[in-house]
Amino acid sequence: MSTVGKAGLEDVVVSTTDICYIDGREGRLIYRGYDVDDLAAHSTFEEVVYLLWHGVLPSKKEYETFYKALSASTNRKLPPKLITILHALPKKTTPMEVLRTGVSALSAWDPDAADNSREASVRKAMRLTAQMPTLVAAWERIRRGKAPLAPNPKLSLSANFLYMMSGKKPTDLAVKTFDVALILHADHEFNASTFAARVTAATLSDMHSAITSAIGALKGPLHGGANEQVMLMVDKIKDPAKAEAWIRKAIADKMRLMGFGHRVYRVEDPRAKHLRRLATELGRQVGDESKVQILNTVARVVTEEKHIYPNVDLFSGAGYAAMGIATDQFTPIFAMSRVAGWAAHVLEQHGNNRLIRPRGEYTGPTRATYVPISQR
Ligand code: SDX
Predict the structure, then answer these.
(1) 346, pLDDT greater than 90
(2) Phi, psi of 234 (to 5 degrees)
(3) Distance in Å, CA 306 to ligand 1 centroid
(4) Quick one: average pLDDT of 290-302?
(5) pLDDT averaged over the chain?
(6) Biggest alpha carbon distance in the chain?
(7) Neighbour order of strands in the sheet with 28-31
């Protein structure tokens, strides 16, 4: 048996994959060969979902067919009995707990639940990708004492989500910003939540179970939960003039700085520059640039003092906040995008599977003598 490697499986290569490549030294992110900078500039989230699942960009006809299926109300709407379950939850239930619960429950109504064939798994992935925005928005309305809004099949996934959250038609800039954010979050190689999905799929469990495992992993503040923590930091700092002193004290107090650092990137996360730009544009549009000003100061000081760099979670929340989205909805939005990547990895794992089962190096006693409780 080999000896224990670095903690946290650092630098351990688990298997090959054709889906996503991260160059941690150059700061490059590639989905199926395409640089995420190009996809952010020219693609749509729906097209990136197709690319991740099918490995190629769609033709015009293939795109139209895929887009229509992903937007169809039959795929976007939730079973009425699931809405009843949501109403039964305490209003204080966090959106990530609701998402984890709702995705798990959706398998009960899914006609392909027991079928692990690729075709059935793609259909389930399509429904989950279409339903998760509806689920997130439904809870936002229910917890505020309002009725959930029906999805609008005429709107893109991004526009429909923003509409279902607010009840208003979103601005073109908000839709474009949100769609680019979904593209940037769609996949990221063997991150913790994707690996959780692959481990689950490797037992030949189903798509819903694998996505539920992934949501549980993403919830943690060291992973997807960081974007919410960043906004809580911004809310604590409040005034851009106070940002420098605040972050210098946080560094002196050896605080874990949310939105910074990465297991793979040794330079700035290539997604951060896009999210910084979009958050700046949106903040300007809504007349509140203070959040981005605070984050820019924090980023300058942390990079200078600690030589750790912004990751995907530093600026994403400032953009969502400018759209009027509540902070505890930021990680569910991450999940709404990453479900595309998670599903791609489940399909790849099922396509060439071996149970994922590492070893542990046992360090406990090996010859303990059992003593009856009456003598202990
Ligand atoms: C995501 O894996 C992915 O691809 C994830 C993701 C994706 O798209 O799926 O990119 C999304 O999860 C981004 C990361 C979001 N998390 C955060 O922003 C939380 C803050 N970041 C850190 O907790 C940390 O950087 C991690 C968890 C992201 C990575 O941690 P590692 O690789 O386990 O590194 P480490 O915690 O062992 O730190 C190594 C050193 C330590 O110093 P020493 O104790 O050795 O002196 O660097 C320091 C750490 O103290 N360090 C930090 C830090 N990140 C690293 N110190 C303060 N604040 C930080 N953010």
Answers:
(1) yes
(2) -60, -40
(3) 12
(4) 98
(5) 97
(6) 77
(7) 20-23, 28-31, 34-35
Query: Which residue ranges form the domains of the chain, and what is each CATH number?
Result: 20-219+335-351 (1.10.580.10), 226-322 (1.10.230.10)
Confidence of residue 1 (pLDDT cuts 50, 70, 90): low
83-128 pLDDT, tens per residue?
999 999 999 999 999 999 999 999 999 999 999 999 999 999 999 9
Is residue 4 predicted with pLDDT exceeding 90?
Answer: no
Ligand 1 mutation pick, 188, 308, 309, 334, max ligand atoms within 8 A of CB:
308
Which phi and psi angles does 213 have, rounded to 5°?
-60, -45
Q: Using the mean position of ligand 1's atoms as its centre, give its distance from the Cα of residue 311 in Å.
A: 9
User: What is the distance of C-alpha 194 from the center of its chain?
Assistant: 10
- Check: pTM over 0.85? Answer yes or no: yes
Q: Which two tokens stand for residue 114?
A: 């027991």
Nearest 5°: phi and psi at 274? -65, -45
40 near 185, Cβ under 8 Å?
no
Alpha carbon of 110 to ligand 1 centroid (Å): 37
Ligand 1, pocket residues at CB < 6 Å: 8, 188, 191, 222-223, 226, 256-263, 308, 311-313
